[in-house]
Amino acid sequence: MTKRAWPAIDRRTFTLGLSAGAAAGAFGGIGRAAAATPATISEAIHLGFYIPIYVAKAKGFFAEQGIDMTIRSAGGIAQPVPALLSGSAEFAVTAPAMSVNATVEGAQMINIAKIVGHISVWVVAKPGTTFESVDDFKGKRIATLKYPSNTITTPTYAMKELGGFDPEAEGATFLQLPFGAQIQAVADGRADIACVFEWDASIAETKFGLETVFAIGGAVGPAVFTSSFVTETFRDENPEMCQNYVNAIAQAQALLHQDPEVFTEVSAAEFPQIDAAVIEAAKARFFGDAPVVPTAPTISKAEWDTMMNHELVAGTLRKSLPYEQMVDNSFAEKAAAEYAAK
Prior knowledge:
Strand order of the largest sheet: 2-1-3-10-4
Distance between the termini: 37 Å
Main location: periplasm
CATH architecture of the largest domain: 3-Layer(aba) Sandwich
Largest sheet: 5 strands, mixed
Family: Belongs to the bacterial solute-binding protein SsuA/TauA family.
Helix content: 40-55%
Number of helices: 16
CATH topology of the largest domain: D-Maltodextrin-Binding Protein, domain 2
Structural class: alpha/beta
CATH superfamily of the largest domain: Periplasmic binding protein-like II
Mean pLDDT: 89
Domain SsuA/THI5-like: 51-261
Number of domains: 2
Protein name: ABC transporter substrate-binding protein
Keywords: Signal
């Protein structure tokens, strides 16, 4: 990968060097200086639970750290990897298993930040449906997206690992559908329940009169559901840029926990097609008992091991690789020490 020149510049110097006439960034973010280095994030798809990267851009944190950031959706969970390998992006935001699969195949990847801190899949059903534990998947017709979406792999993992039973043997069947069709399948009776991401859980509540009856992430516990990774070569050649990138993520995560209205504001701008009522309903899941938004970008060994076990059981991981090989927590630890939500 071609190394981009990264100027030696701290935040104070950068801020002082801003032109008085620089246009303020959207939502009051800091204006970009001419010296800012361009970089690109390749995100799997445009999803609400990637909100820390959108806030980091909208509120000017990337610019404050000297990065002129572009965010591009890759169109699938595996697609950020070729973006990194081709040099069309520096940072990937997707499932950490994609970094492992790429490394197994010979492309050395390293995870540097946590973006989503719990497995963010919820069960929605018609009012009055009893769903209190993983055992309640038994005998259910479950509407999901198509494999290998986490809407199917996560309930599969939960049944096998937490419930100790085989879904098929216990009569749990999956109805794999296109985007947007799972909620309708529950509403019209083709499915008993649906496993969904946000914004779909809140759309189910506000538009279809359904209820969110179970948080699979709460049952599984903390996990690095989404990470940001780079190639080892990029990390080794651009440590300052990696640090400043993770700093911006940490700033965004802290701000989201300090002022949840930022979530509403930035989400409305990033997803103009989503009604305000849907965004408001989603807050409880983004900042609740099993919060989507981490308080810091650090990745613990327990969070990594949980996610690797999840992917192995679900069948989306070619081979598990150890935390010590796949995670460089040094950038996140420094960022957390300065910026993390207390």
